[in-house]
Amino acid sequence: MDPSLQSHPRPPVFRPRTVLCERHELIRFGLKRVVSEVVEIIAEAADGMSACEIIRSLRPDFIILDVDLDSLNGVEVCRRVAQELPNSNVLVLTDSYHATKYHNQLMRAGARGFCLKSSGPRTLFAAIEQVTRGLPFCDPKITQLVKQQPSSSAPNSNLTDREIEVLIRLDLRNKEIAEELDMKLRTVEKHIECILAKLKVPTRTAAALKAVQHGYVLLPKVPGRDPVTGVSHEQTVAELQAELAIANEHLKALLRQNELLKEALSEKMRNQKKNQ
Which of 101, 124, 149, 258 is deepest in the core (most CB within 10 A)? Predict the structure, then answer.
């Protein structure tokens, strides 16, 4: 075979040191199986207090955080993490109820991304890719849910056309925005300062999410990528395999639980017969 046709091994990929905060053990187990190729799970937490202690001790690169935690909820965990690690990359992974109820509080607390557990691996991988790069991400399903809620905080109409052009590109790095819009980097930074002031938000993540909430942001349509998630079509098979893997693990766990229940029932019936 022509050596040039042989596949070369992939170069080592940086996997962010990640803490997974999720109250349900089975969901934690499944999530680890799905995300282990792109992040390194260094610790897990089932409640908010443990999550804060682990994060304070290990100082991870990336945090996957559920909102519905015991002892401290996800909002308070996010707030404390922001105080301990101001540049932390927190991805909130939760259900539609908590995502819509707490999304404003989570934005103010410093969450960088939002993803629904029901969205599946494709959206989850897109969220991880964005948030681990320090960029905002909002699950399109959450955007739709939030847009359906009444809001008194619509984006300020005083935004200039140029500021809107920057606003809808806040999912990019400042250098990339400057290149796309043929601006100087300092000009982009000044526009972002004005946007934050006019929208009355503390961070670019909050500005981007508010823009998405009110229909400003359209994710870029890149050739060869899904127009909603931005995930390349070549990843589809791998993601479906990952989804199948987690389903199989759930099934194995349920079957094992079923066997344990059968054993427990048999043992109880034997003991009852002995006592008769």
Answer: 124
